[in-house]
């Protein structure tokens, strides 16, 4: 069975929430206080304690871990990555050529949310071009997967870059590790000016990013460029 990263994250969060609930119940059940006159005798339920310990261990195993994100006012970490249509993209070169660069990290080629997000960017490329802004999409998928993704979704106007070892995602704090399921780029978008400074940053997980399933996030970026 094939899982999209978003489904994996949602499933993991559900398991973690359920585990926390079980841990709470186990803690409450682990000690009963029986009153006898002025004395209180604590009776330990050994099985409940063991269940609680196992639940806490599961939380450590299942909880996604993320690198620290760079943020507004920071210099955008430089990179050179191979991209679709035979491109090799050096961020420094792009910054010299454009007033703005949109660097967006996404989870996985072909997943429903990432597909719609990419198509929203594709439709808005003329608006970005008017503002002298270039869009770069980055995930940890291979170049072959990127090329197939572009062919399947009609992505012709911007470049997808392959961060195969995850080092660029990690340098931006967009590195999402989910035990058992693997490593992905975390959905984040950075707006970088011509000096290489991050002037805006949106994350899906803290809801600063408008919905990628509508035009809202693309409009959010265009408005930020207009306000810069």
Automatic annotation (TrEMBL):
UniProt GO molecular function: thioredoxin peroxidase activity
Cellular localisation: Plastid, Chloroplast thylakoid lumen
Keyword Disulfide bond among UniProt keywords: yes
Enzyme Commission numbers on file: 1.11.1.24
An annotated GO cellular component: chloroplast thylakoid lumen
BP GO terms, sorted: cell redox homeostasis; cellular response to oxidative stress
CDD domains xref list: PRX_BCP
UniProt domain Thioredoxin: residue ranges: 70-228
Coiled coil: none
Main localisation: plastid
Key words, A-Z: Antioxidant, Disulfide bond, Oxidoreductase, Peroxidase, Redox-active center
SUPFAM superfamilies linked to this entry: Thioredoxin-like (SSF52833)
Superkingdom assignment: Eukaryota
PROSITE patterns referenced in this protein's UniProt entry, alphabetically: THIOREDOXIN_2 (PS51352)
Catalysed reaction equations from the record: a hydroperoxide + [thioredoxin]-dithiol = an alcohol + [thioredoxin]-disulfide + H2O
Family assignment from sequence similarity: Belongs to the peroxiredoxin family. BCP/PrxQ subfamily.
Entry protein name: thioredoxin-dependent peroxiredoxin
Organism, as annotated: Ostreococcus tauri (Marine green alga)
Taxonomic lineage: Eukaryota, Viridiplantae, Chlorophyta, Mamiellophyceae, Mamiellales
């Amino acid at each position: 069975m094939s899982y999209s990263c978003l489904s994996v994250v949602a499933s993991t969060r559900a398991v973690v929430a359920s585990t926390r609930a079980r841990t709470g119940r186990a803690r409450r059940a682990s000690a009963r206080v029986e009153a006898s006159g002025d004395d209180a005798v604590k009776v330990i339920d050994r099985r409940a304690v063991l269940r609680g310990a196992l639940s806490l261990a599961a939380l450590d195993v299942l909880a996604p871990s993320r690198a620290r994100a760079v943020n507004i006012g920071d210099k955008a970490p430089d990179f050179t990555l191979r991209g679709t249509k035979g491109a090799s993209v050096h961020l420094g070169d792009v910054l010299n050529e454009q007033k703005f660069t949109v660097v967006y990290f996404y989870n996985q080629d072909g997943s429903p949310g990432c597909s719609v997000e990419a198509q929203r960017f594709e439709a808005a490329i003329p608006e970005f071009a008017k503002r002298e802004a270039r869009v770069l999409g980055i995930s940890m998928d291979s170049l072959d997967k990127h090329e197939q993704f572009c062919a399947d979704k009609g992505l012709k106007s911007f470049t997808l870059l392959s961060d195969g070892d995850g080092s660029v995602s990690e340098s931006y704090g967009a590195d999402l590790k989910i035990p058992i399921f693997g490593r992905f780029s975390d959905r984040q978008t950075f707006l970088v000016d011509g000096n290489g400074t991050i002037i805006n940053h949106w994350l899906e997980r803290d809801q600063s990013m408008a919905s990628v399933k509508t035009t809202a996030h693309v409009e959010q970026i265009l408005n930020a460029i207009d306000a810069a």
